[in-house]
Design brief:
This protein is α/β, with parallel strands linked by helices. 29% of the residues lie in helices and 26% in strands. The chain is built from 8 helices and 13 strands. The strands form 3 sheets. It has a 5-stranded parallel beta sheet, sandwiched between helices. The chain has a 5-stranded mixed beta sheet with strand order 7-8-11-9-10, with helices on both faces. It has a 3-stranded mixed beta sheet with strand order 6-13-12. A hairpin with a 7-residue loop joins strand 9 and strand 10. Helix 3 packs across helix 4 and helix 6 runs parallel beside helix 7.
Length: 259
């Protein structure tokens, strides 16, 4: 005979990185977590990347409701469900993992006792870098050009600091219909600090069927087209090109820096 005081089965939240697009780049651990999930939560295009199956309820939503998604996932887990929250690339890089933990910190105390895990994925800057060599081979950083969650003057202050420090820089969220000017401003700032011959990579939809790669100079990059599917890597002063006949060059940043 069952006891009404018997503890309900514990739920869980797993925040999963789906990688850059090619399903072969999804880790086995992430794939296993998706197979265990009863509920799938995420931005519409990312949820669409997961095949439907019996026993999986899908909850797709718009791009600007990260905290709402996180609270939904945690509430489902608190009710005993096993929930997968999906992000493209790595969930800890400008993605859902931070939103989930922000919701935990500001939510009901019982959410802190939930089984919450993060499954890493291959993020866009690593996939783009691997296509062309090792542009992130030395010290580097990643900066989001979106000012949805931070002021634009904070974005530019951080960008100027790392450019002057001589780091390679990966630019996430470079441009959108609502933010058509910010990439141009960022590259103009880079041109004030770096030589105009500095290599800049434009890597669009890496690992997907419509992948497109360009290696430009900083001077050329200032007027080159891009969209939200484009990862941009600005080389460091030490970044080098190895030219190849009829092919894109190899791009690499040496690990050594002269004293």
């Amino acid at each position: 005979m069952s006891d009404n005081s018997e503890a309900r089965a514990e739920g869980s939240v797993t925040v999963i990185g789906l990688g850059p697009g090619d399903p072969r780049l999804l880790t086995e651990s992430a794939r296993a977590a998706l197979d265990r999930a009863q509920d799938l939560i995420g931005y519409i295009p990312y949820v669409a990347r997961i095949p439907e199956r019996e026993g999986l309820t899908r909850h797709a939503s718009d791009n600007r409701v990260e905290l709402d998604r996180s609270r939904h996932a945690l509430a489902l887990a608190a009710a005993g469900r096993h929930v997968a929250v999906v992000s493209g690339g790595d969930p800890g890089v400008f993605a859902m993992a931070a939103a989930v933990f922000e919701a935990v910190e500001n939510g009901p105390a019982e959410w802190r006792d939930l089984d919450i895990r993060v499954e890493p994925g291959i993020t866009a800057m690593l996939a783009a870098a691997a296509r062309l060599g090792a542009p992130l081979g030395g010290d580097f950083c990643a900066i989001s050009l979106s000012d949805n969650l931070k002021p634009w003057d904070v974005v530019t202050a951080r960008l100027e600091a790392v450019l002057r420090a001589g780091l390679s820089v990966a630019l996430y969220n470079p441009i959108s219909s609502a933010r058509p000017w910010q990439l141009g401003r960022a590259l103009a700032l880079a041109a004030e600090i770096l030589p105009l011959a500095t290599p800049v990579i434009f890597a669009r939809a890496v690992t997907r069927p419509d992948e497109a790669l360009r290696v430009l100079t900083l001077d050329e990059a200032r007027t080159a087209p891009a969209d939200m599917a484009t990862m941009i890597i600005i080389g460091a002063p030490t970044t080098r090109l190895i030219l190849r006949e009829g092919k894109l060059p190899f791009v690499y940043t040496p690990r050594s820096v002269a004293g």
